Amino acid sequence: MEERQTTFSFTHKILLLVWLCQASCASAHLTLNFYSTSCPSAELMVRGTVRSASNIDPTVPGKLLRLLFHDCFVEGCDASVLLQGNGTERSDPANQSLAGFSVIDTAKRLLEILCPRTVSCADIVALAARDAVEITGGPLVHIPTGRRDGKVSSASNVRPNIVDTSFTMNEMIKLFSSKGLSLHDLVTLSGAHTIGAAHCSAFSDRFQQDSKGKFRLIDTSLDNGYAEKLMKQCPAGANPSTTVKNDPGTSFVFDNQYYRNLLAHRGLFQSDSVLFTDSRSSQQVENFAEDQVNFFESWVQSFLKLTSTHVKTGDEGEIRTFCATANT
C-alpha cells in the first residue's frame, strides 16, 4: 500500500508540474501536443528512433542528453548546434566531442517523409533527450512543443555559454541564472551525469604530471581510490579518444547514483564535486542521494524549464528540411 501511494503521489505531482509549465510557456507559444493535427505520430516516431538507436548502442541516450544541453545553453533551444559549416557552434572545439547527430537526422528524415516541413529539428532534439531519459529508467516528461529552428549558429557564442568542467560554483550559478535557471535547477540538471561518458581531458586538471611522466592527484576533494582508477584509465599520454563513464556503477541507468557518488567524493568533474562541498547545494545533493523520487520530481520541473530556454516560436526562425543546413 505504501508503494502504491508513493507512485500515485509522484504521478499526480508530475501532471501538476506539466500543467504549470503549459501555463507558463503559453506566452512563448509552446503547447502540449503541438503536432496533434499537423503530424499526430511525430513524438512516437522520435521515441521509436531513439529506442532503436539505443538498443544498438547503449551510449546513445547520454549523447542525446548532452546534445540538448549544448543546444539550449547557446542561442536557446533552436537546434543551432546541429548546423554544419565553418564558424558554426558545431565547429567549435568545445563541441567536437558531441555526438547523437545521426539519431536526430534519422528521425528528421522519417518525419519529412510523413509530414514535410512540419516538425522542427529543435523539437526533435528536445524530444529525443526527453526519451533518452525515460528509456534509461528516468521519468517521462510531457514537454510542450512548437519550437522553431534558428538561423544563427556562431562558434564565438559557445564558450561563454556552456559550463566548463573546471567551473566554480559561482561561475555555474551565474551561467545558469543567465538562462533563467536557479541553483535548484543547477543541482538537479547536473544529475544528467548519471549517464554518459567523458574524455580524459575533461578532468585532467584534477591531476598533475610528475617528473617521471606519471599523474598524481592534486585535487583533495576526490576520493583516493577513485582517483587511482581514473589515473589507470587515463594515464599520461592516453589516446585523446579514451572515455570514462560519468557514473561507473550504473552508467546506462538514469537514477540517483550520481548524487551518491558525490557523497562518496567520487564526482568525475570538479564541477560535480563542488556541488557537495559547497554549503549552498550540499543539502540538495544529500536529499537526492537519499530519495530518488525527490530527484525525479525535481528533474521533471527543471527539464521543462531547460527545454523552454529562449525558444523561437511563431514567425521566428524556420522549419528546416535538413537539420544540418539552414533553408535556402
Structural class: mainly alpha
The N- and C-terminal alpha carbons lie at a distance of: 59 Å
Shape: globular
Fraction of residues in helix: 40-55%
What is the number of helical segments per DSSP (H or I, 4+ residues)? Answer: 12
Strand sequence of the main sheet, in spatial order? 1-4
H-E string? HHHHHHHEEEHEHHHH
Structure description:
With 328 residues, the protein is mostly helical. 45% of the residues lie in helices and 4% in strands. The strands form two sheets. It has a two-stranded antiparallel ribbon with strand order 1-4. Strands 2-3 form a two-stranded antiparallel sheet. α1 runs parallel beside α12 (292-306).
Short description:
This protein has 328 residues and is mostly helical. It has helices at residues 2-24, 42-56, 60-72, 101-114, 121-135, 169-178, 183-189, 224-233, 257-263, 270-277, 282-290, 292-306; strands at residues 197-199, 207-209, 215-217, 243-245. The protein is globular.
